[in-house]
Design brief:
Blueprint (H helix, E strand, L loop, with lengths): L11 H17 L2 H22 L3 E2 L8 E2 H31 L2 H6 L5 H30 L8 H25 L6 H18 L11 H7 L3 H13 L15 H22 L8
Antiparallel strand pairs: 1-2
Helix pairs in contact: 1-5, 2-3, 2-5, 3-5, 3-6, 3-7, 3-9, 5-6, 6-9, 6-10, 9-10
Length: 277
């Protein structure tokens, strides 16, 4: 039965759901996107685990010893949120603008809100699947003990939702910056890579100098990674964080602020066609 009845177009939400389904089909047909945004955190976690073998880390006498896989798992989960939302959407929308896809969509009744909902829906689904795959590989293949307390999984849920939504909105906003298809990767990938290196993904955050921690803490990835560490690392590791605690209330506030910033910027900067085209 058609969704268009009595001569009326479907509403914003039904159209957004339809767009999300379309975006998912396109996503899983793109090999390079699958590798660089979906499988990359899983491959990096496996690489670190293989490279360091059975090596364990005990930062202080008061912290339990952990395998490298267990230590890197929170950072890889946070990186997955950044790659799926921020990097994927920033490049994808920039390419759609460059190849004329957005111009054609702008000539249809599709509203920007439905378009956003489709993109965010795609990111949400792929983010859940990516996190599930990453956790499965960590537990089954790499022997990482996952938490059993319901409270930790509740924390995981809200950090994940805030993180993936914030990343997606910031990715939509950044998509307005590249001026061509060729420049999209050159603009987006270095930003995502630098954020990962300074935010406790590839280096444990407490190993970074304080001035770099302060700079990194301006950006949301630090707080996504911190929230994930609160879920998957023993409580004793909270003493290594700035302030000596997980600070989950601050995590929620900072991610909430960045979500609002991303929403405002995405609405202000999004155009079907670049004004300077």
């Amino acid at each position: 039965m058609s969704t268009i009845t009595a001569g009326r177009m479907p509403g914003v939400l039904p159209t957004g759901v339809w767009r999300a389904r379309f975006e998912l089909l396109q996503y899983f047909r793109s090999g390079d996107t699958l590798f660089f945004t979906f499988l990359f955190p899983v491959l990096m976690l496996g690489l670190f685990s293989v490279a360091f073998g059975s090596e364990v880390v005990q930062p202080t006498p008061d912290t339990p010893a952990l395998s490298m896989a267990a230590l890197y798992l929170p950072g890889m989960l946070a990186a997955g949120l950044l790659l799926s939302g921020f990097q994927n959407l920033a490049m994808d929308i920039a390419l759609e603008r460059a190849d004329g896809t957005l111009e054609r969509l702008g000539g249809t009744p599709l509203s920007p809100v439905s378009y956003f909902l489709g993109k965010i829906g795609q990111v949400a689904v792929t983010g859940v699947l990516q996190a599930a795959l990453l956790l499965t590989v960590a537990a089954v293949v790499l022997g990482v003990e996952l938490p059993t307390e319901p409270g930790r999984w509740a924390t995981f849920a809200w950090v994940f939702v805030l993180g993936i939504t914030t990343s997606a909105l910031l990715g939509i906003a950044l998509s307005a910056v590249p001026r061509s298809a060729k420049s999209a990767a050159a603009v987006v990938i270095p930003i995502a890579l630098i954020l990962q290196f300074i935010s406790g993904v590839y280096f444990t955050f407490w190993q970074l100098p304080e001035w770099l921690q302060s700079i990194a803490s301006i950006f949301p990835l630090v707080w996504m990674a911190r929230g994930m560490r609160a879920v998957f690392l023993p409580d004793q590791y909270a003493a290594l964080e700035p302030g000596g605690e997980w600070g989950l209330a601050t995590v929620a506030i900072v991610l909430g602020v960045w979500l609002v910033v991303g929403l405002v910027l995405s609405r202000l900067t999004f155009r079907w066609i670049r004004r300077d085209a």
